[in-house]
């Protein structure tokens, strides 16, 4: 009897990282406006401070804060107006003791001034004198030089997924071209004699192909570039031929189905052959997802993955291994997670980590995680779940009210 020699999730990840060491995805230079949702392949360092000069937060009068001490509605302070800053212009006067100057919102604070009084609290007393009815503290209504971004600061780190706010920061620094990772290109092959296109009515024994659709959407959600999606019969040689062809153009070839021990299950053999014997992993100590296969062909630099045919298993293994690896290789941060209390006791799977789907429920101020049960051959469990948590392989179980770390799906 031949049993799978399973790897723990951690050991499997480590093995893949080692095998792919130095194979960081290539990078390209892109126009800033084309970079949304891409992963930065460089640190963005501020070559100048933002703002470059002190700016006013309000429309009002730039003053020396000390001059306004004690000013109130009943007892204004009288200051001489010595100038006016125009929007977009630099200030060409100095505020000295007993004087002030007008500044619009965003305008440059004149030298000497250290605060701005809002114009609602001021009144022109005569042609060049201002009555100030409020006292302001040092720095009030002033954005100081470099308060937003310091000169020399790494303001956005390599591995950051570019959101509209990162685009805004780069625009503020005049960075109009960015170096981002070229996403992995991927070919997805679903195998199975029983699979029919979703547009067709399956005959008895047939089922609609779920995995090509769900996996290509997952890949796109992680920013990968899906080059080709195929549905093939469980025939080893034509399947191997397609895998070899796909390896010429794809960084990642993912085969779903045929990963276990059925009569026609050939994925493991194919991965071994196409990677020149570099099949690294066949079997994860994970529930679901045990019969997963990973190989890396150093000559083409292609990662070849055999995902279990059961849809939930295929999608979770993609999430935990393939997407994890891509994020790791592109220096991305850990995913956001949320701690939630279990609604019920849950048994573990001896010797295997369990990836448990959960629905999140908010009760008063706390989140609760309610297990979503269902076999890995189903699909709707994933739409009923908000996320998952991992129960370690040495954990006997989880108790009701115990906190678990939930990752979103
Ligand atoms: N004797 C054993 N049988 C099985 C084992 C085992 O260890 N010993 N492992 C089970 C586990 S766990 C899983 S997971 C599956 C993995 O199966 P395969 O990767 O070999 O995939 P298939 O046999 O081709 O299909 C399994 C199942 O999934 C359905 N499927 C496959 N592809 C798709 C698709 N694209 N869309 C929708 N559904 C798909 C397929 O119809 C089968 O029902 O093996 C267990 N068996
Ligand atoms: O482990 Mo399977 O991968 O239960 O569905």
UniProtKB/TrEMBL annotation:
InterPro entries: MoaB/Mog-like_dom_sf, MoaB/Mog_dom, MoCF_biosynth_CS, MoeA-like, MoeA_C_domain_IV, MoeA_C_domain_IV_sf, MoeA_linker/N, MoeA_linker/N_sf. It catalyses: adenylyl-molybdopterin + molybdate = Mo-molybdopterin + AMP + H(+). It holds the Pfam family MoCF_biosynth. Residues 187-328 form the MoaB/Mog domain. It comes from the Bacteria. The keyword Transport does not apply. SUPFAM superfamilies: MoeA C-terminal domain-like, MoeA N-terminal region -like, Molybdenum cofactor biosynthesis proteins. It is an enzyme of class 2 (transferase). Signal peptide: none annotated. Pathway: Cofactor biosynthesis; molybdopterin biosynthesis. Belongs to the MoeA family. This is Molybdopterin molybdenumtransferase. It comes from Lacrimispora xylanolytica. The lineage of its organism: Bacteria, Bacillati, Bacillota, Clostridia, Lachnospirales.
């Amino acid at each position: 009897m031949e049993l799978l020699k399973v790897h723990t999730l951690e050991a499997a990840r480590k093995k893949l990282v080692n095998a792919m060491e130095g194979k960081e995805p290539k990078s390209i230079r892109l126009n800033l406006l084309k970079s949304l949702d891409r992963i930065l392949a460089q640190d963005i360092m501020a070559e100048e401070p933002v703002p470059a000069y002190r700016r006013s937060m309000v429309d009002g009068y730039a003053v020396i804060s000390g001059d306004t001490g004690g000013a109130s509605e009943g007892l204004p302070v009288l200051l001489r107006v010595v100038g006016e800053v125009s929007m977009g212009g630099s200030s060409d006067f100095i505020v000295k003791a007993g004087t002030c100057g007008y500044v619009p919102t965003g305008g440059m604070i004149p030298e000497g001034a250290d605060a701005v009084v809002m114009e609602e609290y001021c009144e022109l007393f005569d042609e060049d004198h201002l009555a100030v009815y409020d006292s302001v503290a040092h720095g009030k209504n002033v954005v100081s030089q470099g308060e937003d971004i310091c000169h020399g600061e790494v303001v956005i780190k390599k591995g950051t997924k570019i959101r509209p706010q990162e685009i805004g920061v780069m625009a503020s620094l005049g960075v109009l071209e960015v170096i981002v990772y070229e996403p992995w290109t991927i070919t997805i092959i679903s195998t199975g004699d029983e699979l029919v296109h979703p547009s067709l009515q399956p005959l008895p024994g047939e089922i609609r192909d779920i995995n090509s659709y769900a996996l290509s959407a997952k890949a796109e959600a992680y920013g990968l570039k899906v080059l080709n999606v195929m549905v093939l019969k469980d025939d080893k040689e034509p399947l191997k031929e397609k895998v070899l062809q796909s390896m010429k153009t794809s960084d990642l070839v993912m085969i779903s189905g045929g990963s276990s021990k059925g009569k026609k299950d050939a994925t493991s053999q194919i991965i071994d052959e196409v990677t020149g014997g570099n099949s690294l992993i066949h079997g994860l100590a994970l529930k679901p997802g045990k019969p997963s296969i990973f190989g890396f062909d150093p000559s083409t630099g292609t990662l070849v993955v055999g995902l279990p045919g059961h849809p939930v298993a295929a999608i979770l293994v993609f999430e935990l291994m393939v997407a994890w690896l891509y994020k790791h290789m592109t220096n991305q941060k850990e995913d956001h997670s949320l701690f939630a209390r279990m609604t019920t006791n849950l048994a573990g799977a001896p010797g295997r980590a369990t990836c448990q789907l959960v629905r999140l429920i908010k009760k008063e101020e706390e989140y609760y995680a309610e297990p979503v049960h269902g076999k890995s051959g189903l699909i709707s469990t994933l739409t009923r779940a908000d996320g998952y948590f991992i129960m370690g392989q040495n954990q006997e179980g989880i108790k009701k009210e115990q906190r678990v770390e939930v990752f979103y799906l």
